[in-house]
Design the sequence.
């Protein structure tokens, strides 16, 4: 049975989000350990608690893969905010980035059939472009965390 | 996944041997994104319970079994 995140774990999560927004990259386990005065194993345990609580998603190697709506790797979905491309985990998350940051954004999503970019934007809090765009959710809510990468 | 039409969704589902799930307009997805993610970087964020998630869905009229609505 997994333990819930501690207050310190939630602070680690804040640092991960801030780094992802600032650089597009997640801090690695050594960065986190050094920042919080932890041993790497302690830092990894903190990330695991956050993963178990669905507060972020770890890759098989223990690195941060997703901090929803942000992706720590390049994906088919990205939002450009303040001159920087930030990658999202899905179409929903590409809109989640400007929603989370309260910022305007240019968004690109690669079309699943043609691989051509579909472009739209958030401007002044309004969705602009991609009229008629539709998003398909494959998994019902109760299964979202069975396999979050496929969801 | 984002498509330009419902015909494209049907084509994708046939190509990938998947069943149809739920389809939302991009405009509705923007509304969901704002409700779902606005507080995600708040220092007070501590995750979201199933009940809290379903309350967001209901506010946006996302009801039915797909959205976990036990009343459907």
Sequence:
């Amino acid at each position: 049975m997994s333990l819930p995140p501690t207050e310190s774990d939630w602070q680690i999560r804040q640092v991960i989000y801030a780094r992802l927004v600032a650089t597009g990259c997640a801090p690695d386990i050594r960065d986190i350990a050094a920042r919080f005065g932890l041993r790497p194993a302690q830092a990894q345990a903190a990330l695991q608690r956050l993963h178990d609580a669905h507060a972020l998603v770890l890759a098989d190697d223990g690195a941060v893969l997703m901090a929803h709506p942000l992706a720590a790797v390049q994906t088919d979905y990205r939002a450009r905010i303040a001159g920087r491309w930030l990658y999202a985990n899905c179409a929903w998350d590409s809109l989640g980035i400007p929603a989370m940051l309260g910022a305007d954004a240019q968004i690109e999503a690669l079309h699943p059939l043609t691989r051509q970019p579909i472009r739209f934007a958030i401007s002044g809090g309004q969705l602009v472009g991609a009229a008629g765009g539709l998003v398909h959710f494959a998994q019902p809510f109760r299964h979202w965390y069975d396999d979050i990468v496929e969801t | 996944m984002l498509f330009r039409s419902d015909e494209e969704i049907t084509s994708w589902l046939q190509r990938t041997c998947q069943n149809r799930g739920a389809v939302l307009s991009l405009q509705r997805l923007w509304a969901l994104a704002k409700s779902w993610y606005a507080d995600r970087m708040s220092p007070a964020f501590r995750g979201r319970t199933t009940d809290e998630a379903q309350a967001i869905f209901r506010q946006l009229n996302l009801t039915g079994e797909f959205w976990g609505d036990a009343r459907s």
